[in-house]
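Listing 4. Sequential folding, example run.
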Amino acid sequence: MDGQRIVIVTGGTLGDWALREIADSDVLVGSDRGALFLVRHGLTPDVALGDFDSVTAEEMAEIRVGSRCVEACDPIDKNWTDTEMAFAWALERRPASIVLLGALGTRFDHSLANVHLLHEGLAHGIACSIIDACNEVRLIDRPTPVTRGRFTHVSLLPLSPDVRGITLHGFQYPLNQATLRIGQSLGISNVLLGESGLIELDSGLLLVIQSTDPA
């Protein structure tokens, strides 16, 4: 799947916004209830996987009919969340990029665990992001361009104990060879001056969170 994008739709908060993030060329993975979302919106998952403990027997029948392939596992005898299973499936196929939809929601533990999955993507050299109605989350360890798109704010938070040598270009609030440490809010709510900017850093793992307020 070199050159392709894999989109994982999982069982967190979903809506019409998620459909707008999906392109015809994407490889679609439905994770647990995310597969039902895809099927019910007229989209065909290339694979539906998980323990499917959040769907009824009737809903599971819909998923089986509407998906190209279904990989179900025992809900008790497993060590991964459904989203992590889908993410591992995607990593094995070495795509150009992976997008997670429905990976944020009311369960903060699952949301935070899904953010941590970005570290696995980075370790495999695959561009990964989590997108919801108001946010896009990425993890970087090297100079990275940022474009405005539909987002009004850019926040930077360290995922490692500290991130050193942060220099910002094209931002309202510049940083020059700065260090961000866990617990600091210095990187919150910056703004691009134009349509794009650049984040440079020397070491560490940096979460880049682009966000906008609900309409």
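-- end of first protein; second protein begins --
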Amino acid sequence: MTNKTHWENVYDTKLPNEVSWTQEKPETSLQLIANCKLPKTAKIIDIGGGDSNLVDYLLEQGFENITVLDISEKAIEKAKFRLGKLSEKVKWIVSDITEFQPEETYDIWHDRATFHFLTEKEQIEKYKTLVQNYASNYLIMATFSNNGPLKCSGLEIKQYTIRDLVGLFSDKFKIIDSFYQDHQTPFNTVQNFVFCIFKRI
């Protein structure tokens, strides 16, 4: 089964309360984006946004240039349906992140829970190159910590510490904030995440 087939199946067969990453309101991501203090015209991309509610709240706050990328067309269909007419204000991209070919740079590159699915060195290097070339201002990265799960949605993942992430992205970015945070899943288990916020050097 390919990655795309796996994720299309997940979003086709499961409700939001049946997947671990669901957040009714992504408070931490919203606060970190607000902390960047960029204008509402700032270009924001949500990597692996799927049918996350982040886009709903960003639209509500008046952000005008939002892009959501996900490998699953079904996930994006769900988000569009939920947003209705508002979905026309968003750029939607169906792509595996390692095959993404951006046509613009982004003031905020936000990724909560996609990066840890890249377990091969080649995939990680491709992602790093994308960030270096297309994240023009801020990088907000949230991924499973070294105290987090070893698998998610039946797939192997790669765990990270703050030091690991700094080591990966320090060529072009300086870290401005970092912390660990527990995420309570809809079925009352706990996953430990590491958050790192980087500013372009």
